[in-house]
């Protein structure tokens, strides 16, 4: 680590004391920067104008306001074949699976907005979980998921807001070792709730969504501080 420009070592004790104080402050700042929690955010939809992509970005803003790092990804950029045990045995994990797993392993939390397909989880999200839950050589089982913290949400034009799908999303994630926070949001008539700039028309609803991101962030900060 390079020393700050204003630090110079002198022979006098007073100046040495000042130097040590500056070093300690710099080390503290470096430690806080290096250990800042990271959240991976995505929607369980690949549609360009997905309502769930818009929704999860609101939660991202809430997490960033709580001072964590957030990476937003589009699952369209990580296309994978349908999970096939024979394919895995013959060829190993697909390249995009390995790429996404590398990202997931460097993040401690998730923000996931999932559409409801036929009263359940979307196919693309389920397939993503199925592939990324497979272990690489020498890797612990469920390394991408175990002990991670997640906030979940959904948006739908229908009257349930995707709520029935969230039941399955929560069950799947909890079963593979993810701590899913109790709070969640399911936005009804979601085709009517967003402004053209991606913000929400109803500010109370917007705060509810942002609070999901903030809650995950605050839990991760507390967990992180206990391990420093």
What does this protein structure show overall?
The protein is an alpha/beta fold and 228 residues long. Helices cover 44% and strands 12% of the residues. It contains seven helices and six strands; from the N terminus they run H-E-H-E-H-H-E-H-E-H-E-E-H. Strands 1, 2, 3, 4, 5 and 6 form a six-stranded parallel beta sheet that branches. Helix 2 (51-65) crosses helix 7. The longest helix is centred in the last third of the chain and has 23 residues, at 203-225.
Quickly describe the structure.
This protein is an alpha/beta fold and 228 residues long.
How many whole angstroms does the radius of gyration measure? 21 Å
Outline the biggest β-sheet: 6 strands, parallel
Number of strands: 6
Distance from N terminus to C terminus (CA atoms, Å) equals: 19 Å
Task: Provide the succession of SSEs.
Answer: HEHEHHEHEHEEH
Instruction: Tell me the structural class.
Output: alpha/beta
| Mean of residue pLDDT values | 89
- CATH class, anyone? Alpha Beta
Task: Please identify, by name, the CATH architecture.
Answer: 3-Layer(aba) Sandwich
Number of domains: 1
| Low-confidence sequence ranges | 1-19
In what range is the share of β-strand residues? Answer: 5-15%
């Amino acid at each position: 680590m390079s020393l700050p420009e204003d630090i110079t070592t002198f022979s006098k004790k007073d100046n040495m004391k000042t130097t040590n104080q500056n070093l300690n402050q710099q080390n503290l700042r470096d430690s806080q920067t290096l250990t800042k929690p990271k959240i991976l955010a995505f929607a369980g939809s690949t549609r360009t104008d997905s309502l769930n992509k818009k929704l999860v970005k609101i939660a991202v803003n809430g997490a960033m306001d709580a001072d964590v790092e957030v990476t937003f990804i589009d699952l369209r950029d990580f296309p994978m074949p349908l999970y096939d045990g024979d394919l895995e045995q013959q060829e190993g994990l697909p390249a995009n699976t390995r790429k996404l797993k590398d990202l997931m392993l460097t993040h401690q939390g998730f923000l996931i907005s999932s559409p409801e397909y036929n009263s359940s989880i979307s196919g693309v999200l389920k397939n993503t979980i199925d592939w990324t839950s497979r272990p690489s050589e020498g890797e612990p089982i469920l390394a991408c998921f175990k002990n991670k913290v997640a906030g979940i949400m959904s948006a739908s034009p229908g009257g349930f807001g995707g709520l029935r799908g969230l039941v399955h999303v929560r069950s799947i994630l909890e079963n593979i070792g993810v701590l899913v926070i109790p709070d969640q949001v399911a936005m009804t008539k979601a085709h009517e709730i967003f402004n053209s700039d991606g913000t929400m028309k109803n500010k109370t609803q917007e705060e509810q969504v942002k609070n999901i991101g903030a809650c995950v962030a605050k839990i991760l900060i507390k967990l992180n501080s206990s391990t420093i």
